[in-house]
Amino acid sequence: MSSLPSLSSLGFFRNLRGLGNRQFAVIGLGRFGRAVCSTLHGLGYEVLGIDSDERLVAHVMTQHLAAHAIQLDSTEPTALKEAGIFDFDTVIVAIGNYIQESIITTLNVKEAGVPYVVAKASSEIHGKLLHRVGADQVVFPEHEMGCALARSLTRPGLLDRFELDPDHSIVEVSIPPEFDGKTIVELELRSRYGLTLLAVGEDEKFEINPSPVMRLTEGKVMVVVGSNKDIDRLPL
User: Fold this and answer.
1) In the chain, what percentage of residues exceed pLDDT 70?
2) How far is C-alpha 135 from the chain's CA centre?
3) CA distance 72 to 82
4) Are residues 209 and 203 in contact, defined by beta-carbon separation less than 8 angstroms?
5) What per-residue confidence (pLDDT) applies to 150?
6) Are 63 and 1 in contact (CB under 8 A)?
7) At 182, phi and psi to the nearest 5?
8) Which residues in the chain belong to E strands, given as ranges?
9) Spatial CA neighbour of 89 closest among 24, 169, 12
10) Rounded to whole angstroms, what are the CA distances from 202 to 133, 139, 220?
11) Cα 93–97–102 angle (5° rounding)?
12) Is the pLDDT assigned to residue 28 strictly greater than 90?
């Protein structure tokens, strides 16, 4: 749905990669929770959406944002157990604005033995409390989206970013005029910028590990990996 925020540039899925299961429970079906459901469902994972608001549950089902959605009070451990939530390997607590419910829900699923719990925080204090009650990963989507927006406004040549950790990223950037007509070896990306070139392409067709003698063309796209500090030195 176009009204849902995009998660492609967030670090949200970073720690979900490599998890063997293909089943996720998302508790809280506000804008963030629906975006998580929609993205995971679109990637082929089995997703169960949960909320205490019957209207949000119905919306998720009518819009086909998840395979299943149920209404329940996540602050009640009995309700979570009866719904089978404790059998999931990964639970995302997407309740952000109701801090007490968020913390109690996170505590409930961790005390029940859910191996991996991701929780949305609305403030730094909220995030610390979530960590205290056992959340394995705490995300601040509003903050991350704000940072992504600032980068897109100030660095328009940076098309997409995947954060490997807080200090390193893989980025897709438009080849700048300064690089036009030069070969990869002439640019000396590694020695001058500390970056490694992974691919070059256009129209979603990429050549992986391109030849060092390939000449770059302004307007095409290159994918590089390196520290965020070094990426920011590119002439974009």
Assistant:
1) 83
2) 17
3) 10
4) no
5) 64
6) yes
7) -95, 150
8) 23-27, 46-51, 68-71, 90-93, 116-120, 137-139, 158-165, 168-174, 196-202, 205-208, 221-227
9) 24
10) 47, 33, 5
11) 35
12) yes
Tokens 């989206």 belong to: 145
What does pTM read for this prediction? 0.64
SS3 176: coil
- In DSSP terms, 169 is beta-bridged to 163, 226
Nearest partner of 73 among 119, 27, 34, judged by Cα: 27
Who's near 21: CB < 8 A, 6+ residues apart? 88, 89, 90
Token code pair at residue 140: 């601040």
Q: How far is the C-alpha of 136 from the C-alpha of 15, rounded, in Å? A: 10
- What's the confidence (pLDDT) of residue 149? 64
Mean pLDDT of the chain: 84
DSSP per-residue codes, 24-92:
EEEE--SHHHHHHHHHHHHTT-EEEEEES-HHHHHHHHHTT-SSEEEE--TT-HHHHHHTTGGG-SEEE
Cα dihedral sign, 32-139-17-155: positive
Alpha-carbon distance of 218 to 208, in angstroms, equals 18
Beta pairing partners, 117: 91
Max Cα–Cα distance, the chain, nearest Å: 65
Sign, CA torsion 62/68/73/79: positive
